[in-house]
Every structure is written in structure tokens, then in C-alpha cells.
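REQUEST FORM: STRUCTURE PREDICTION
Request ID: SP-0412
Submitted by: Lab K.M.
Chain count: 1
Length (residues): 83
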Amino acid sequence: NGNDEWVDATITLKGQGTGAANKDQPMGSFVLKPPVVKGRTALKLDTFKKPDGEPFVHMVMRPTDVEVVAMLRGEQCRLTKSF
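STATUS: Completed
RESULT:
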């Protein structure tokens, strides 16, 4: 709700290629660990990165799955969504 504060959040985005060289190929997992997320928020896809630092590139990838794991009021919450 409105100003709920989510902490210890890890957001994992999986993607699929859309370019000529990588069409329909899995692109791996890209992670974002924002320090705190208050209420509803928007996140830029290019802020998600693989462990090696490679960013999510929306021009040649599309998101297929997202998983959010975070703490809210002392409880761990998990959301998984496929597109």
C-alpha cells in the first residue's frame, strides 16, 4: 500500500533475445538489489545486470519472467510472474 517500505529486495529478471542473432534465445538472469523500495515504483530495465556486469538491453531483449523477494514488516515476501 502507498508508503509501505520494502527492504532487502532482490529483483531477478529473465529475458529472451529479440535480435537477428539471438531471437528467442534465453539471455540469462539479470538482478537488481535496490536498497529500499517505497510503495509503488518504476524500475528501468537497463539497471538490471548479470553477475559479470552485463546490463539488460531492451533493444535486443524482452523480459519473460520476474521474481521479487523482499522483506515487508518483518516477513519475507516472494512474487513470481511470467509474461
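NOTES: The two ends are 24 Å apart (CA to CA).
Reviewed by: T.R.
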